[in-house]
Automatic annotation (TrEMBL):
SUPFAM superfamilies: CBS-domain pair, Nucleotide-diphospho-sugar transferases. PANTHER family: SUGAR-1-PHOSPHATE GUANYL TRANSFERASE. It comes from Cyclobacterium lianum. CDD domains: NTP_transferase_like_2 (cd06426). This is Nucleotidyl transferase.
């Protein structure tokens, strides 16, 4: 039976599952134990495990949900199709009483080009930080501001709009400075179906300083996104995590993997060996450039002063505020802020 590469065994680790999902661009895998069906593992399962501080080398079998949705041999095709639609299932296996997989239905085979929809819709303000000079992308940014750099047939800004609009967001506040008139001219020419407001820095104010200009403008939970990143994730799940944990700020963090091509050595006093690892792999949580903030934090930002968002986050954390971190996989984060990454993405 062709499972389209969406199989993993229960002994494999959380990191193995993440890499598998990234390699096939899917977020749900069938878990086997001795060639028999043992469960399903989703990107959400892995995210919850990481949030609960489970190590990345934890076996998948340790994080499997006991209650999952699968089909039985007697279920009709129409009932299976409806279940997949209702619960946004990438795939649905048909399992008999002996835990044998009789058949697997795939979303793309049944619903063709129809995209999986977000779990929930919400209409919250979105702030896009688009005032930078795009120095790392020169010389193209000498002519085109970074927010208008094309990815396929659309600009970065339009891709960001699309992703939030899919979740129900239609109100955008764009921080501008460099080539602000060109950004305004382009977006007006597109006649987009959104509410778009600009707030302009008279001078560079860092990744958070210009947010002070939104005091009294935004009075509800809001998203902040850099203009050079895309996150492929159900944003309603991030929002649910933010609200469930009563966070003041939630940072969306990408898991970035690095392979060290050498053996590494750890020593103690007098140069005595503690450990020797051959070509270890390291994984870090990287600040992706997307956040959820509560509106009262705007009062924490000094007016007309340079402030990075990391400084704001540290300030809130030191005051005892709740700062959450929501993980996404490495390939769920697209960063076009540098030429190498931009060329990779633009050629896909």
């Amino acid at each position: 039976m062709d499972l389209k590469g969406r199989i993993i065994t229960k002994e494999k680790t959380i990191l193995d599952a993440l890499r598998k999902m990234d390699s096939i661009d899917k977020k749900l895998l069938v878990v086997l134990n001795n060639e028999q069906f043992d469960g399903l593992v989703s990107a959400g399962d892995i995210q919850r495990a990481i949030i609960q501080d489970q190590p990345l080398d934890t076996p998948i079998g340790n994080i499997l949900r006991k209650k999952i949705r699968v089909a039985s041999p007697g279920d009709s095709f129409e009932s299976i199709k409806q279940m997949m639609l209702d619960f946004r299932m990438e795939l649905c296996p048909v399992i008999d009483e002996n835990k044998e997989i009789l058949q697997v239905y795939f979303w793309e085979d049944i619903f063709k080009e129809q995209e999986l929809q977000p779990k929930n819709q919400f209409d919250l303000p979105v702030v896009i930080m688009a005032g930078g000079f795009g120095t790392r992308l020169k010389p193209i940014t000498n002519v085109i501001p970074k927010p208008l750099i094309p990815i396929g047939e659309k600009t970065m800004l339009e891709h960001i709009f699309d992703r939030f609009s899919k979740h129900g967001c239609n109100s955008f506040h764009i921080s501008v400075n460099y080539k602000a008139d060109l950004i305004d001219f382009y977006l007006k020419s597109k006649n987009l179906p959104y509410s778009i407001d600009y707030f302009k820095e008279d001078k560079p104010m860092g990744t958070a300083g210009s947010l002070s200009l939104l005091k009294g403008v935004i009075n509800e939970t809001f998203f902040v996104s850099n203009c050079d990143i895309l996150i492929e994730q159900d944003y309603s799940e991030i929002l649910e995590y933010h609200r469930t944990n009563n966070n003041d700020i939630t940072i969306i963090a990408a898991l970035k993997h690095y392979s060290i091509p050498y053996g590494t050595i750890e020593t103690t006093h007098n140069g005595q060996l503690v450990s020797l690892l051959e070509k270890p792999e390291l994984t870090f949580k990287i600040n992706s450039g997307m956040y959820i903030l509560e509106p009262d934090l705007l009062s924490e930002i000094p007016e007309n002063e340079f402030l990075h968002i990391t400084q704001l986050i540290n300030k809130i954390h030191k005051k005892g505020g709740n700062v959450g971190v929501f993980p996404v996989s490495e390939k769920s984060w697209k960063d076009i802020g540098e030429w190498e990454e931009y060329l990779k993405i633009s050629m896909v």
